Amino acid sequence: MSPDDEGPKIAVRPNGPYIVTGELPVVRRRVVESESGEPLTWQTTAELETTPVYALCRCGGSSNKPFCDSTHKKNGFDGTETAPDDAYEARQKTYVGTGLVVRDDRSICEHAGFCGNRLTNVWKLMRGDATEDSITRAQVMSMVEHCPSGALTYRLEADGADVEPDYRPEVGVVTDGPLFVSGRVVVERADGRAFETRNRVTLCRCGGSANKPLCDGSHKENGFRDG
Length: 227
Fold this sequence. Notes:
Helices cover 11% and strands 25% of the residues. The protein is of the alpha+beta class.
């Protein structure tokens, strides 16, 4: 069976790149911010030309970002994976409001910042009876749906299904940030075990995450740049 027949997949190579199969599209994606620097939404700015199988840089050192140019073989990149391998269900904390249930897994947060603004955040909005107001519920839903890592999810009832954005399978290369993988793409660890397949996940490409292969926001501290 060919990689195409199996569907899109991202395989982590030991101390090396991400090998992507199944003709998964790659786009450039940026955060649209307010005048106060608050994340508001995502904008796709370009689609990159790819082949059916390609390698994406994981060490942060490639001169051909987002693609791998084998710099990991020379810069001593340590790609040891430390991300949790159990299910989201086992790690999440639940916040129950009126007509809305938010779940949160801090262990996979990438700190994109969509969950708050200068006035409030998801956790404050879920307190007390605030979500009795449909405007508040809509604000929380929007914040959660823009979370790229999937650390935040929501459902309408505690025993209901998560309500997820309708993403196509693709890799979004975030400007000076991680790989925002959407659309329930299979991600496979270096030892061959698959991560829990989810609609949203962010993969480190700066080489500095302490939660590899997932992004933990280290790119903001280590000065990672695309150029």
